[in-house]
Write a structure and sequence with these properties.
133 residues; mainly alpha
């Protein structure tokens, strides 16, 4: 499991991503708060991260990087809107984590095949597996 600093980093990256369109909508806030709860981060700490970003730490394992990428894909689609700036930022975050560019592109394309653009975890994992073989 991630350390406390890594958990704060996960949330900080997600909050910054949610603010890419210069607004943090209620639905995004609530989604992020549920992620914080799942990471055992107190609401007060989460709210402080909304105001002051923690240092971003790239997840150590490939599995953690793929999981974070999946969280970001879900976050991007939670408000039923996609902006070019969000797609570009998500692509760059994936590259920054060392994920294969072709897998990132495939995820961003395939997600449109699913209701509410919620790509199932097993589909996402299979995409990355295929690009690592």
């Amino acid at each position: 499991m991630s350390t406390y600093k890594e958990k704060l980093s996960i949330l900080s990256e997600m909050i910054a991503f949610a603010k890419a369109d210069h607004a943090l909508k209620d639905i995004e806030y609530n989604f992020l708060l549920s992620v914080a709860d799942g990471l055992d981060i107190a609401k007060e700490t989460f709210d402080s991260l909304v105001e002051n970003q923690a240092k971003i730490i790239v997840p150590k394992t490939q599995a953690d990087r793929i999981l974070q990428f999946h969280r970001l894909v879900l976050l991007m689609n939670v408000d039923q809107e996609q902006h070019l700036v969000e797609i570009g930022k998500l692509h760059n975050i994936g590259l920054g984590m060392g994920l294969p560019p072709s897998a990132i592109e495939q995820v961003l394309t395939v997600m449109h095949d699913y209701p509410d653009k919620i790509i199932p975890p097993e589909v996402l994992i299979n995409i990355f597996k295929a690009h690592y073989n």
